[in-house]
Design goal:
Elements: E1 5-8, H1 12-20, H2 25-29, E2 35-39, H3 42-50, H4 65-68, E3 71-74, E4 79-81, H5 84-91
Antiparallel strand pairs: 1-2, 3-4
Length: 92
């Protein structure tokens, strides 16, 4: 078993609710249609965006947030998020 990646778009209202009650995330995960599964491509995407292979220095590369997210909701699962302004900054 290894690390796989998936993305899910949520509204600001949904994210606010999740931050207040993280257990809501389990229900949200059941909605597979809202998810994009990248399986193990996360490392390749990180390399293409940053040119780096060393994951010990993830914080050095702001574009790495496009792959790994920003603030972490759950350390155990690695679930992280970006706020709309951060997504806008990264896309610029």
């Amino acid at each position: 078993m290894g690390m796989v990646g998936a993305y899910m778009r949520v509204s600001v209202e949904e994210l606010t609710a999740l931050l207040q009650e993280p257990e809501r995330f389990e229900r949200l995960l059941e909605d597979k249609e809202r998810q994009t599964d990248i399986d193990k491509a996360w490392h390749g995407l990180y390399f293409l965006l940053t040119g780096a292979t060393d994951l010990n220095e993830i914080d050095r590369h702001s574009l790495g947030k496009a792959v790994f997210g920003g603030d972490v909701i759950d350390e155990e699962t690695g679930i992280a998020y970006l706020m709309p302004g951060e997504v806008e900054d990264l896309s610029t």
